[in-house]
Design goal:
binds NADP nicotinamide-adenine-dinucleotide phosphate, globular, about 325 residues, 8 strands, eight-stranded mixed sheet, alpha/beta
Length: about 325
């Protein structure tokens, strides 16, 4: 679709009421689910810091078996030790740098070889970079970590989820998808031609993940597999540590003072993963635990189909649906 046509299509679809709803929802506390997670297997990416780490603790406190897909071995060992000291749960980790294709596929193989269903898969790993970085495979890093790796994992796990006919996939997304207000630049997902900014690349990666959810939701329709996305709140985590001194100082002195505690994110993720109240909900976006309408580009099924094809091509996956 021509650039202008796409702009006007989205422009007409924007509703101020959604922005005011978001601002109101940002002040809400998450709903709390007190149900047990005993016997459930939870897989989470990026369990070593911030939201992921507190979420691991939340699931452990509720008796879940946990597998973390982390990039750092030492941090992973510390996490496992601290969880096992406190809770009698089965917790393991698999080391994979999700900015790398090879590691992403190794993580998929590992999950495909599990001899039990994955009850909950939480795509949490993410980065925010103020300066453009490319991975050794040639992908812009924010795009790869925040979107493409989760797309590949979900895509390769389709058959496992369909066969087990159960499971909830949670995309830890962001209100930041709103920064990509006029949609994705499908011909330049790797930011080779357009001017890069941290907010634009982050927003685009999160928007891509929301668009992919539309197609996964279609694929899982008629099954008991659910996929939903959520904004985990504006919380004080380790995010931004890969940026320069100026950003880190700004974050510490300004941003962090306004941010909430990561516990609200963990409560929301737990609710969305476990609560029976939403057992039939799929393909939706939540601000913590409040259902919210994402931006018009995030609901654009035509664009989502195009992105799907581009993603398969970029990831060198064969179309199988
Ligand atoms: N914090 C917020 O206010 C906020 C708001 C909206 C959305 N989110 C989203 O929430 C999620 C968690 O972010 P956070 O705020 O908790 O940030 P964080 O504290 O920086 O945690 C990010 C996690 O992702 C892991 N990770 C980063 N790059 C990776 C890679 N290449 N391979 C594997 N794992 C990798 C990190 O591993 P290490 O421990 O090794 O660094 C860490 O465990 C992200 O998807 C983020 O976009 C956060």
């Amino acid at each position: 679709m021509a650039k202008n046509k796409k702009f006007w299509k989205y422009f007409k679809a924007y509703k101020w009421s959604n922005i005011s709803a978001m601002l109101k929802n940002n002040k809400k506390e998450p709903k709390i689910c007190n149900d047990s997670a005993k016997g459930k297997l939870v897989v989470i990416t990026g369990g070593t810091s911030g939201i992921g780490k507190v979420t691991v603790e939340k699931f452990a406190s509720k008796g879940a078996d946990i597998i973390c897909i982390n990039r750092n071995k030492e941090k992973s060992e510390d996490l496992v030790t601290s969880i096992k000291d406190k809770y009698e749960v089965d917790i393991n980790f698999f080391i994979a740098d999700l900015s790398l294709m090879e590691d992403t596929h190794k993580a998929c193989e590992y999950l495909l070889n599990l001899d039990r269903p994955i009850d909950i898969l939480i795509h949490n790993a993410g980065v925010y970079l103020t300066k453009k970085q490319y991975t050794k495979d040639g992908f812009e890093k924010v795009f790869m970590v925040n979107y493409l790796s989760s797309f590949i994992m979900n895509y390769r796990l389709i058959d496992k989820f369909k066969t087990q006919n159960s499971g909830r996939i949670i995309l830890v997304n962001s209100e930041g998808h709103r920064f990509a207000a006029w949609g994705l630049k499908l011909d330049d997902l790797n930011w080779k031609k357009h001017r890069y900014s941290g907010l634009k690349s982050y927003g685009s990666a999160k928007l891509a993940q929301l668009q992919s959810m539309l197609i996964f939701e279609e694929i899982f329709s008629g099954t008991s597999v659910r996929i939903n996305a959520m904004h985990p709140g504006a919380v004080k985590s380790e995010t931004g540590q890969d940026n320069g001194k100026a950003y880190k100082s700004f974050k510490k002195k300004v941003l962090d003072k306004r941010l909430k505690q990561t516990e609200i994110s963990a409560e929301a993720i737990y609710y969305l993963s476990i609560s029976e109240e939403i057992k039939d909900v799929s393909g939706k976006f939540y601000n913590l635990t409040t259902l919210e309408e994402p931006t018009p580009p995030a609901l654009d099924i035509e664009e989502a189909r195009k992105l799907w094809q581009v993603s398969l091509d970029l990831a060198k996956l064969n179309e199988k649906q």
